[in-house]
Amino acid sequence: MITSLDQLDFNKIYTYSDYLTWQFDGFVELIKGKIFPMSAHSRQHQEIVLNVATITKNFLKKNHKECKVYVAPFDVRLLKNPNESLEKRLDKTDKEIYTVVQPDICVVCDLEKLDDRGCVGAPDLVIEVVSEKNAANTKQDIKDKYEIYAANGVKEYWLVRPLEKTVQKFILDNNNVYQIG
Q1: Closest by Cα among 120, 102, 107, 131 to 37
Q2: Between residues 107 and 162, which one has the greater pLDDT?
Q3: Is 106 helix (H, G, I), strand (E, B) or coil?
Q4: Which of its termini does the chain have fewer beta carbons within 10 Å around, N or C?
C-alpha cells in the first residue's frame, strides 16, 4: 500500500487504477502516466479560485442551467482517444486511463461525463490560476496542460495570472488547436 509520495517511482508509468490505491495526504496529477505532485496553494490563490468559480456558477445558473462547476480537488480523467463515443469512454477501465488532472475550476455541460469520482472526458471549460512564483507549476499549466487539454477537446482553457492581473482565454478550433479568444 502506498502511504507516502516518496514510495512512488517517478520514472514509472501509472494508471488511474494505481492512483486510486494511493493513500497519502496531498494531491498529484497523472499526465500520460507520469506523476506530477501538486503544491499547496496560497490563500490568495484559493480566494481567486473561489471568486472566479462563484462568478462562473452565477453566470451559468442564468444562461446555461445544464452546466455544472467544479473546483479542485476534482478528478478529470482524460483518455487516449477523446474522439471515442461516450459509451466507449465510460466503458474504459481504470487501468486504461493514464491522465488524471485536477483543474482549479472546470465546467461540465454534458452531465453524462460525470460520475461519483469526477469527470470522464473533457470538460467544456477549464480555468487554471497560475502560480507564477512556482516555475514548475507554471510550466505545467501553460505547456503540458495546454497540450493535453487541446488534444482531448477541452473547448475553452483560461489561464488566470494574478501577478499580471490578466486572463488568457484559449478557444479550441475545429483542428484541435487553441486560438486566443
Answers
A1: 102
A2: 107
A3: strand
A4: N
Map out the domains of the chain as residue ranges.
Answer: 5-180
* pLDDT tens per residue, range 70-98: 999 999 999 876 666 656 655 668 888 99
What's the full length of the chain, in residues? 181
Pair 14, 37: CB distance under 8 Å:
no
CATH no. of 5-180? 3.90.1570.10
Q: What span, in angstroms and rounded, lies between the C-alpha atoms of 100 and 103?
A: 10
Cell numbers for 113, please give them: 461525463
| Residues in Cβ contact with 60 at an 8 Å cutoff, skipping those fewer than 6 apart | 67, 69, 107
- Cβ count within 10 A of residue 73: 9
Q: What is the pLDDT of residues 13-64, one digit of tens each?
A: 999 999 999 998 889 999 999 998 887 888 999 999 999 999 999 999 999 9
What contacts 109, CB < 8 A, 6 or more positions away?
64, 66, 67, 68, 124
